[in-house]
Here is the input.
Amino acid sequence: MRKKVIAGNWKMNMLPNEAINFINEFAPLVKDTNNEVILCVPYTDLFYALLHVQETNIKIGAQNMHWETTGAYTGEISAEMLKSINVDYVIIGHSERRQYFAETDETVNKKVKKALAVGLKPIVCVGETLQEKEEGKTANVITTQTKLALEGLSPENVKNTIIAYEPIWAIGTGKTATAQDANESIKTIRKEIEENYGKDVAECVIIQYGGSVKSTNAKELFTTSDIDGGLVGGASLKPEEFAKIVNFDKE
Ligand code: PEP
Here is the structure.
């Protein structure tokens, strides 16, 4: 059975002292969960967060990386740099990066390959816009994004990749896809993976849902057949609220 993986995406929030306070309050609340718990924090929090999650079951992720190892890329951070301080996960191709920072399916694919090559687990975001949804293009958009993000990967590497299905119209808007619709989209992504890499790989791949996940809807979403947890933005900034999401299966 696939594990549930719940990752917080803090985006551009939290100074180091806020990150430390968060972890100190949050860690005891999630210490008994069997779910994988990840905090994807800003670069400036990484080092502090890694220090403060020692002796806990919380893993740390970054929110972006560059695909080159070193070089004249002012302002960028490489996969090797993240790995060197023991970061475990990295979000790749979040819709905000695709929208505001011109990330493409091609750069997403380069980053995914590099992350896996150095032993980071990528959390690759795919999802349709409101217009694409209204035009009935959801399945086409998400299967194309998934295919291009994973292009050239070995089946073993695909197993080590997490996909986050995040309908763009649901991110930060308070609008959540229904559990049934999100589950159907995730089944579509799993089918695409099965066609390219086989049933065994498709059955192993963790596919999360993201888009206005809260403690009040987490259980309904995460207990469907194919949703393997969530990528959580706004609600991951409050320790108690995020802990309730992580502990969705405890009540
Ligand atoms: C996200 O940033 O990936 C996200 C899903 O945000 P929110 O939970 O705030 O919609």
Observations:
- Residues 9, 11, 166, 171-172, 210-213, 231-235 surround phosphoenolpyruvate (CB under 6 Å).
- The chain is about 45% helix and 15% strand.
- Residues 5-250 form a domain with the TIM Barrel fold (CATH 3.20.20.70).
